[in-house]
Design goal:
3 strands
Length: about 80
């Protein structure tokens, strides 16, 4: 069962999809006041997910950052 089921959805549908992918890859997603924080299962990597992205390419850049982390692949999201 996903840990995100009882959370308020992200206003951006693409970022919501990315957060669900993170959940499936065993990353921990923590809701903060103005952003989400994604923490890897190994505890060495973390990334903020903003509520209002500043760029049209924000989701792609964030996804690329996460794919470059070996713990993202080991989580089984592929």
């Amino acid at each position: 069962m996903s840990r995100l089921n009882n959370w308020p959805k992200h206003p951006n549908k693409d970022l919501e999809k990315l957060m669900r992918e993170l959940d499936l890859a065993n990353w921990i997603v923590v809701k903060r006041k103005k952003y989400y924080r994604a923490e890897c299962p190994c505890g060495q990597h973390a990334k903020m997910i903003h509520m209002t992205p500043s760029s049209a390419y924000y989701v792609n850049q964030l996804r690329q950052f996460l794919r470059n982390r070996t713990c993202y692949e080991n989580g089984g999201s592929r």
